[in-house]
Amino acid sequence: MFKLIVLCAAVCLVTAVVEVDRRSEEVRADGFDAEVSLNDGSSRQESGDVHGNIKGSFEWISPEGEHVRLEYVADENGYQPKGSVLPTPPPIPEAIVRALKWIENNPHEE
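The line above is the sequence of Larval cuticle protein III/IV-like; the predicted C-alpha cells follow.
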C-alpha cells in the first residue's frame, strides 16, 4: 500500500510541473526590461528606468478558470496596482456629496 501511495505522489508531481515557456531579461544603463511566461498561463512583464520607476503587469488563470491580469506602476508615489479583480470602495452616498458641496460653498468664518 505504501508503494502505491508513493507511486501516486510521484505521478502527481510529474504531471504538476510548471515549465518556463519564455524568459528574457535585459539590463541597460538607462533601465531594464524583464519578462517570464509559464506554460500554465502565468506571466510577468516589467520595465524600469534609471530613476527607479517600474511599470509592469502579471497575470494568471485563477482556480475558477478566470484570466486575471494586474497592471502596476511603482514610482515616487508608491505602488499603484490596477485590475478588475481588486476591490473598489463603494460610491459616496448622495447625502454626503450634498453636505460636502454645502460646506465648500459656505465656509466657516471666525
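Note on the example: The longest strand covers residues 20-28. The chain has two helices and six strands.
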